[in-house]
Amino acid sequence: MTERTDSTDVTANMPDEQAAALVVGADEDPWTTEELEEVRETLRGESMRLREEIADSEHEIADLLRRSTTDGGEDQVDAGSKTFEREHELSLAASHREMLNQTERALSRINDGTYGVCESCGNPIGKARLLAFPRATLCVACKQRQERR
């Protein structure tokens, strides 16, 4: 798979004042261009890694499906094992797709200047949280509420 490039990357050569304009918590220092570029590179690397893992999972799933249709006369244990393996690969692929979606959404939010704003309440997510988990779209309070449901 090829890496998608976005021609609307408004922060590619972002002056410090534009990076500093991104939302941060009241007790946090503004974003620097270097910090934001580091986050962007982390997300791009994660995007490439996830695309590779999705491709690997899809190849493995296709191989498992091909083997399951050509293996007649297998016993129940073998059939169950292959079904489990296939379901596991499908689950991994779905998880990787969701992570890729989150990663690309974070890159898009950097590009449009909304990175760091909680998608639920509109409050700052927190720079420290974003540095630790760059794909975060919710502040800690909203994430905790979501997990309790």
From TrEMBL:
One of its GO terms (molecular function) is zinc ion binding. Residues 33-67 form a coiled coil. Residues 113-148 form the Zinc finger DksA/TraR C4-type domain. InterPro entries: DnaK_N (IPR037187), Znf_DskA_TraR (IPR000962), Znf_DskA_TraR_CS (IPR020458). It comes from the Bacteria. A zinc finger (dksA C4-type) spans 118-142. This is TraR/DksA family transcriptional regulator. It comes from Phytoactinopolyspora halotolerans.
